[in-house]
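Hi team,

Filling in the usual template for the complex we talked about on Friday. All components are listed, including any nucleic acid strands or ligand strings, so the model treats them as one assembly.

SUBMITTER: L.P.
PURPOSE: interface mapping
COMPONENTS: two
RESIDUES: 230
SEQUENCES:
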Amino acid sequence: QSVLTQPPSASGTPGQRVTISCSGSTSNIGRNTVNWYQQLPGAAPKLLIYHTHQRPSGVPDRFSGSKSGTSASLAISGLQSDDEADYYCAAWDDSLNGHWVFGGGTKLTVL
Amino acid sequence: QLQLQESGSGLVKPSETLSLACTVSGGSINDNSYSWGWIRQPPGKGLEWIGSMYNSGTTYYNPSLKSRVTISVDTSKNQVSLKLTSVTAADTAMYHCARGDVVAAADRWGQGTLVTVSS
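RESULT (copied from the run log):
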């Protein structure tokens, strides 16, 4: 069971805006920034968002991140077929000398 | 362009030690801005952070694996290594080498190497 909680699935049609939630606690999301990763089928994960809302070079601005309290969200606007992938959130957890924790992942289907 | 390439045994017997290496090319493992570590993914399941090490020597481990894990860096070879002792079938996974920093568990990933624990 993952420390961060994500819905197992999400879906949307091309052009739509979808959001994926990530719920944690005061020791992780509540105190620290959040990462989001995209994993396309058969590929290694790729960093999509860091520092809660920053995008690495090359990531389209259709992807955005936010946080409120102990929950975070990834929003994808202008949904495209090649956005179909698994999405994972992660955050540093201050407990037990510190460690990274991940969400269980959300499979996004583009209908 | 930074590349990370994992290598090691793809089949390990139960109770034995899993050993993997990750060779970093296109950049120096000596860069103090980053940590170097491992993340795994069991077949059909989600990501699990194993641990990471900074050049200062400071290491952080997943509390659930800490008693069995050792991560080390060899700057002369530009390599980061993973040892996981007393493996069981639950340790079967794709193991990814990763570069991280204080705001990202991993900003660069290796393609991963599949390790199966079976007799």
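MY TAKE: The mean pLDDT of chain B is 95. Chain B touches chain A at residues 39, 46-49, 51-52, 60-63, 96, 100, 102-107, 109-112 (CB under 8 Å).

Thanks, L.
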